[in-house]
Write a structure and sequence with these properties.
About 40% of the residues lie in helices and about 15% in strands. The protein contains 14 helices and 15 strands. The protein has helices at about 25-35, 50-55, 60-75, 125-140, 155-170, 185-195, 210-220, 235-245, 265-275, 330-345, 350-360, 365-390, 415-425, 455-465; strands at about 75-80, 85, 115, 180, 200-205, 225-230, 235, 245-250, 280-285, 310-315, 325-330, 395, 405-410, 425-430, 445-450. The strands form four sheets. An eight-stranded mixed beta sheet has the order 4-11-10-9-8-5-6-7, with helices on both faces. A three-stranded antiparallel beta sheet has the order 12-13-15, with no helix packed on it. The chain is globular.
């Protein structure tokens, strides 16, 4: 359906040369024809009315009407009674399509279920609560709140985030340590840039883990990535020491993707390493809100605020579409991080910041988290029971928090063959091999995400591919 403009006429850039010997009507026809042929005006796009275009160009309305009539006769424009003049569908961007060099690839079958991980339940994004928070923020905000503001973020939101993190994550946070950013990715990029300027360019990452995405962030600042193995106690601190890194990025509360918790003794070893090496730990606190059958694990940052950067985001708690996050940084680099944020984009959307502050203060944020914690726990239980019913030999780990689990296949299982066969049946499976630095497929493991997969879809998906899980 074409977009209607409620009587308002769209703008169109046309430049007429009154010193040229070419008549104005011919210039107008030529420019409109070229705009359609090149795709600058797309199919079914509405043109300005003859009256508004004539007024904007300083020419007679009759001249514009004559031009439109000529282009309609040529098939470039269409006009229906009571409707605006529009670009004809058959002429916009007209170019003969080049012959394909080879037959198009066979389209993949449509997935009826996708056990993708790291994605929250998109259908449960709190749309009404967010709309309410935006309205409240806009209604109550002073005029000054609509300026660019402090690059570190709105002062009220930074106070609220600091208080929230102290309350639920035992973070040693104060507003002057908090920098609001456009999600985890921007927060990481800014911190890495500041550290690279201090010649801290060797960055350790968990293996398996987000090696590729962190590697891309490091590449933009000239830093080097060093994979460090993870075992049942978390990152291997001895291997970290041997790596020569002075920065490490890790997920201590619920390791991505194995799901292990960084053990108490490893946490203290890690802090000792950071102090001895004059190093920085970057903590990705990505899904700590969602825990089920274990006591909450406090933030690593609380052990040493001078050595740990804690990065948080609302991507998992609210929705990835809302690009909001924060970095709680040591006092020694707080000003540099703020300067890097200013250089990156001046500031994160202040309206969104004010809305998030309103959402948290109102209690609606906590209520949403409680609701989603219950739903994810139910989906986890459905995954466990479905596998117990259809593939009881499969062992699951990493179930105590978050919304993904690791399925351990038999020693001789072919991870990639299972994934391929499942896709042919319309079920998306994802292997651990893609998260390992060397891409190895042994031991064969699958990462089952259930955040964006309904309870019924989980049951149906497992029943469909159960015989493939060896």
């Amino acid at each position: 359906m074409a977009l209607e403009w409620s009587g308002l006429s769209p703008d169109l850039l046309i430049q007429l040369d009154r010193e040229s010997s070419t008549p104005l009507r011919a210039q107008l026809e030529s420019q409109l024809r070229a705009a359609i042929q090149t795709g600058r005006l797309s199919a079914d796009e509405r043109l300005p009315s003859s009256r508004s275009l004539a007024a904007s160009l300083g020419i007679s309305r009759g001249l514009v009407q004559e031009c439109f009539a000529q282009l309609q006769a040529e098939g470039y424009l269409v006009s229906r009674g009571g409707s605006a003049t529009r670009v004809a569908a058959t002429n916009s961007g007209a170019r003969p399509a080049p012959a394909p060099a080879s037959p198009p690839p066979t389209p993949e079958p449509r997935l009826m279920v996708d056990f993708d991980s790291g994605v929250p339940d998109l259908a449960s994004a709190p749309r009404d609560d967010w709309a309410w928070a935006v309205r409240e923020a806009c209604r109550k905000a002073p005029n000054t709140a609509f300026d660019y503001g402090d690059a570190r973020g709105d002062s009220r939101l930074r106070e609220i985030v600091a208080g929230y993190l102290r309350r639920v994550r035992a973070v040693d946070a104060h507003a002057d340590q908090v920098v609001v950013c456009g999600g985890f990715a921007q927060g990481l990029a800014i911190v890495l840039r500041v550290l690279a300027q201090r010649e801290m360019t060797r960055v350790a990452v968990e293996d398996p883990g987000s090696i590729r995405s962190i590697g891309r962030a490091c590449a933009t600042v000239g830093s080097e990535v060093v994979p460090v193995p993870v075992d049942e106690l978390g990152i291997d601190v001895a291997a970290l020491e041997a790596s020569g890194a002075r920065v490490v990025v890790l997920t201590p509360a619920h390791q991505w993707p194995t799901g292990v918790v960084l053990a108490g003794e490893r946490r203290h070893e890690l802090i000792t390493w950071a102090r001895d090496r004059d190093a920085i730990v970057i903590e990705d606190d990505y899904d700590a809100e969602f825990r089920y059958d274990r006591e909450p694990i406090g933030s690593l940052q609380g052990l040493d605020p001078d050595r740990v950067v804690s990065l948080g985001t609302v991507s998992k708690s609210l929705t990835p579409a809302l690009r909001l996050g924060w970095a709680v940084v040591p006092a020694a680099i707080a000003d540099d991080v703020a300067a890097a944020k200013l250089a990156a984009d001046r500031s994160t959307s202040r309206i969104d910041q004010l809305a998030l502050a309103t959402l948290i203060e109102s209690g609606r944020f906590d209520r949403h988290l409680r609701r989603m914690r219950s739903e994810y726990a139910a989906r986890r239980d459905v995954l466990v029971s479905a596998l117990a019913e259809h593939a009881s030999h499969i062992r699951l780990t990493g179930l105590a928090a978050g919304f993904h689990a690791v399925a351990h296949l038999s020693a001789g299982a072919d991870e990639q063959a299972i994934i391929k066969a499942a896709r042919e049946r319309g079920v998306g499976l994802h292997g651990m091999s893609t998260l390992r630095s060397d891409g190895r497929t042994t031991p064969p493991q699958l990462v089952f995400g259930f955040g964006n997969t309904s309870q019924r879809a989980i049951r149906d998906g497992i029943a469909t591919i159960a015989d493939l899980l060896t």
